[in-house]
Amino acid sequence: MNFAPYRKWVGWITLGFGIAMTAVGIWELLQPVQFEAMATISIEKHFPDGMGFERTPIYDPYFFQTEFEKIQSTPVLDRVIKDLKLADKWRADDLQGALRRRLRIRTNRQTGLIEIVAYSENPREAADIANALAKAYRDYRPEGRVSSGGIQSLRKGLQKQEEDIKRERETLDRLKADLPLSGYEPDGTNRVKEFRAYFDKKQEIESMELARKALTLRIKSEELDLSLPKTSLVKIESPATVPATPLQFHIQFGRISFIIGLLGIVTGLRILRGTSAPGELALTKVHR
User: Fold this and answer.
1) SS (H, E, C) the chain
2) What is the rounded distance in angstroms from the CA atom of residue 160 to the CA atom of residue 215?
3) Is the Cβ–Cβ distance between 57 and 42 less than 8 Å?
4) Can you state the angle between helices 4-30 and 249-276, rounded to 10 degrees?
5) Backbone phi, psi, residue 41, to 5°
6) Strand pairing partners for 236?
7) Do residues 123 and 244 touch, judged by C-beta distance below 8 A?
8) Which of 102, 105, 101 is nearest to 129 (CA)?
9) I need a labelling partner for 38 at 20 to 30 A (CA). Which of 49, 131, 142, 151 fits?
């Protein structure tokens, strides 16, 4: 098969790819450097063991997911914004949104510690944000717990959800019993709508089941949280320090993209040069 007719297209595609990668590399290299600072905290859980209270570290993914949401909740972020006077430093209409974009909350599965990571173009600011958030969460958590009355309200909501699901399942059973054997009757009557109503109701019940499971997990988490004492709930294990070097990922990515782009441009131009002057190539062969 002769690939010569496609050689020109390959050249243009390679050239375009090289230009695009070069542009990406330049854009990445022109971005301001980012610094990363991390503070680690622990949440202490206390359980009676017949001998008094003991501190027992437990890894519960649902529990930690709830805590992640609390760390980035409005009351906690408002404290950080106030303590660091970010309203005077940042030009942003949505300070909470700007702060959330500079944060990353994660769990170390081996140690069970929560890592609060902050990013900023200023290394000092990155460390201040991570430490301020850890402190704000530590001070807020005892205040933000759901009361026993609040848990009772959640239970009532769960009971109502279960009653709604039971009622909808009865409706689904009736729809299923009335389903025809096919979408059309022998006389040509269209019964497709009945199938659609059945599957729509089934999907609605599945969504309600997911909401019920989420509420059940929240109730369990809040019950456990309420059983804990109000002291020593959160401990700052390791405060953030001022980072000495910026993140290197985008710099390395920019360099690699730029080099790949240059190679693509050179390759594309060489391919196009070979296809644009066939007469020179033929003349070279004659001389040889």
Assistant:
1) CCCHHHHHHHHHHHHHHHHHHHHHHHHHHHCCCCEEEEEEEEECCEEECCCCEEECCCCCHHHHHHHHHHHCCHHHHHHHHHHHCHHHHCCCCCHHHHHHHCEEEEECCCCCCEEEEEEECCHHHHHHHHHHHHHHHHHHCCCCCCCHHHHHHHHHHHHHHHHHHHHHHHHHHHHHHCCCCCCECCCCCECHHHHHHHHHHHHHHHHHHHHHHHHHHHHHHHHHHHHCCCCCCEEEEECCCCCCCCCCHHHHHHHHHHHHHHHHHHHHHHHHHHHHCHHHHHHHHHHC
2) 12
3) yes
4) 150
5) -130, 160
6) 41
7) yes
8) 102
9) 142
Both structure tokens of 199: 């599957």
The residue ranges of the chain whose pLDDT is under 50 are 46-57, 188, 231-232, 277-288
User: Positive or negative CA dihedral for 73, 78, 84, 90?
Assistant: positive
What distance in Å separates the CA atoms of residue 41 and residue 73, rounded to the nearest whole number? 17
- Token reading at 2: 């002769």
CATH class of the 35-145+230-238 domain in this structure: alpha beta
Sequence letter at residue 10: V
**Per-domain boundaries in the chain:** 4-30+248-281, 35-145+230-238, 148-226
Distance CA 265, CA 132 (A): 48
Angle at 138 between CA 116 and CA 47, to 5 degrees: 105
CA quadruple 37, 103, 128, 28: dihedral sign: positive
Q: Whole-model pTM above 0.70? A: no
Query: Which is nearest to 23 in space by CA: 250, 266, 262, 247?
Result: 262
Q: Which residue has the tokens 């988490």?
A: 221
